[in-house]
Amino acid sequence: MTSTPHGARARARIEITAAIKEEARRRLAEEGAAELSLRAVARTLGMASSAIYRYFPSRDDLLTALIIDAYDSLGETAEAALQGSVGAAPGERWAAVCEAIRGWALAHPHEYALIYGSPVPGYAAPASTVPAAARVAFALIDVVRDAHRAGELDVPALPGDLESEAARMAADFVPDLPPAVAPACVAVWAQLLGLIGFEVFGQFTRVVEERDAFFRHTVAGLARTVGLRPADAAS
After folding, report:
1. How confident is the model at residue 233, as a pLDDT?
2. Whose C-alpha in 5, 115, 163, 196 is 20 to 30 A from the C-alpha of 205?
3. Contact, 63 vs 124, CB < 8 A?
C-alpha cells in the first residue's frame, strides 16, 4: 500500500519527537535536568533552533514529556509485576511489585532522579503528569485491595487525631478500603521511594553492603505497616 503524504509526515514527526527525547535523556544523564536546553538538543541533532519548537514549544514541555514517559515506563514495570504475581500470597505480590520498582530505578537512575529527585528550578509539573505518576502507586494499592477482599488484610491501628485525615484520604483514592489503610499506604509509599532513592543516589555507600537482603527485609516491614502478611516475615 502506498503511503500518503499525511501518513509519512506523521511517521516523521513520531521519529523526530523520539530522537529529541532520546537526546534530552542523554543530556539529563550528563548534565542534569536543570541544564536541559532545547537549543542544545537541536544543535546536537542538526536541527534549526526554530524547528525544535514545533515539537516542544518550551523546555518545560520537553521536561513534561520526559517525566510522563518515565512515570509510564515505571508504571508498566510495576503493573507487569502485579499481573505476573496473580495467585501468589499478598505478601509475595507486594514484594514482587516493590522489587520491580527498585529494579527499574537502578536501571534508569537519571529518570528516577527526574521524577523523584530534587525539583527542577523554575519547573512545576502540570496536572497532565498525575495519571502517569499514579500508576505505580495504584499497583501497590491493588495488592492491598485484593488482600482486603480476600480477608487477608490486618487493618492497621489509627490514632484519633488522624481519623478525619484518614477519611479524607480514603475518599480521595481508596474509597473501597478501610480509612485507616489510606495513611498507611501514603506512609509506606514515601518510605519505599526514599529507600530506593538512597540506593540510587549512593546514600548507602559504606552503610549497607547486603542491599538485596536489606531491601527484602525493609519491604517486609512496609508490608506489615499496611496490614499485609509479608512473603517472608523472617527476612
Report:
1. 46
2. 115
3. no
How distant, in Å, are the alpha carbons of 37, 86, 187, 223 from that of 92?
Answer: 43, 10, 20, 10
Q: In this model, does residue 3 exceed pLDDT 70? A: no
Domain range 60-226, CATH architecture: Orthogonal Bundle (1.10)
Residue in the block written with cell 540506593 = 199
User: pTM of this prediction?
Assistant: 0.90
Return the HEC string of 187-198: HHHHHHHHHHHH
Statement: residue 234 has pLDDT above 70: no
In this predicted structure, what is the pLDDT of residue 231? 62
Q: How confident is the model at residue 12 (pLDDT cuts 50, 70, 90)?
A: confident
Domain boundaries, the chain: 1-57, 60-226
User: 149-161 b/e with 16+ CB inside 10 Å = b?
Assistant: eeeebeebebeee
SS3 155: coil
Between 1.20.120, 3.40.30, 2.40.30, 1.10.10, what CATH number should domain 1-57 receive?
Answer: 1.10.10
Is residue 146 within 8 A of residue 227, CB to CB? The reply is no
Residue type, 37: S
